[in-house]
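Complex 595.
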Amino acid sequence: MATTVAAPTTNVHLSRWVDEMARMCKPDRVCWCDGSEDERDRLIGEAVSAGVLTPLDHSKRPGSYYSRSNPNDVARTEELTFVCTPTREEAGPTNNWMAPAEMYAKLRGLFDGAMTGRTMYVVPYIMGLPDSPFAKVGIELTDSVYVALNIRIMARMGSVALQRLGASDDFNRGLHSVADCDPSRRFIVHFPQDNTIWSVGSGYGGNALLNKKCLALRMASYYARNEGWLAEHMLLLEATSPEGEVRYLSAGFPSACGKTNLAMLVPPPAFDGWRIRTLGDDIVWLRIGEDGRLYAANPENGFFGVAPGTSTATNPNAMKMLEHDAIFTNVALTPDMDVWWEGMDGPAPERLTDWRGRPWQRGSAEPAAHPNSRFTVALDNNPALSPFVNDPKGVPISAILFGGRRSTTVPLVLESFNWTHGVYLAGTMGSETTAAKTGAVGVLRRDPMANLPFVGYDMGTYLQHWLEMGRRIPRPPRIFLVNWFRRGEDGKFLWPGFGDNMRALQWILDRCDGRVGARETPVGWTPRVSDLDLRDLPARPAAVEASLRFDVDEWREELRLQQEWLDHLGPTVPRALRLQHDLLEESLETARRVG
Ligand code: OXD
Ligand code: MN
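Predicted structure with manganese (II) ion bound:
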């Protein structure tokens, strides 16, 4: 039976629930987290003694630690993630579903005694700013000190959350146990009606930091629909022109498709005077402001980013923010206790310890860092953080970008004709899968708004909600598709990407202000080569031309796949999107006939 340390709260709803969960999980100890610096040091001490964290060389990376996970537990497991609404229809065809009572019974069996011999950490946190009326309070009970330390970075954690909660019963009840980390007993389960999340059998961030994907996206999207706002899988950035004009963009890309890099973009030398600052790299909550514009806020307090591919060339701001107080998970270790990953600056060291703890030599066929290895750092570490990240009402956005990994078909940038067309393009968007989820990599799958794994209710209803939001926003942002990943016939990327994406951002911002031309294609507006500022671009003009190309035959096939996708989503797909599909099909047929 747990020895419960006196709860630092008079909130009876909270203390009763913690007692009830402790009776089921039977930890040896219950530890209430207050978020203080002393506590951080104590938890790190516990994690180091338990071998969960290894200190890096603090003369090279002060305050930074290394963690290696169970090799069976390195990514989100979508096939084991459930939304348990009272009816299957409410969860829809894109979520796994089980009746809530049946799922609770199954999970109670797995949680029963799961924390014996362990500590249950009570981790109170706030998603959003503590003084924002829109913030949500959650409490995660976890037997993982790694999870407690990561939430401490990713959210406002500790007493601040208990203060905000007061005596209220309105908090997300998160229960998490790594248990025996067996994939056959792994479940990540959302009960939206109960504001409850239970996750068992995994310590991986996306499965176990319940504040992030589970609360701030799946549960939040469910509440957002009822309350008239949007919870989206998007980065948020601020662009300041040489003339001092400040504009904000949000962008939805699937996991491991460059959100962190775009959010931290450093413009190329030809864009002297432009400045990009970051507000977030993964989640935004969008609300209609009093002035009729759409306002975006990042509810997180940190970055949980993909390490491989991050370098001074691709993301200098990220490299700077990783210099201190970071947790690295499943990267490789150098002999002098520093970190390394594929794509980092310079050649690979001669010898490393790989992410599984095995000796590794340069030239080895296997990567030294896991492709989904991660870093966790506070927002404040970012040298180019926008101060408006702390504005509780958020920032007004001029444009929303959506993008996936598409080797063919989708041009570098495509502006939608209007909101409904934008919702169609985003709602039928496809992307080639990455290592951020378990399963095959490089398979084309439809990923509406890059939010497929994170919409906590029926997808057709979600698309209807997007359409309705458009009607309600008096001054809506424009919607664009972008694709940095199109390849030429030689298989090489046509567009250099990274800092040079500034060229596409500038066109997007100029389009919002009606300052630049475009070419109308049957599926949207694209820039002509002459509409882009290509000074000093390290790419051949022919490659740029090819990256912008619209191809009737590719789009006919795309429309066919989009139709299949809408059919798969079923009867709740809004009629306006069906009609939009037919209109695009007709326009393509005309284009094909006319040539
Ligand atoms: C993430 C993800 O970790 O999308 O952000 O998987
Ligand atoms: Mn993500």
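Residues 166 and 316 are 42 Å apart (CA to CA).
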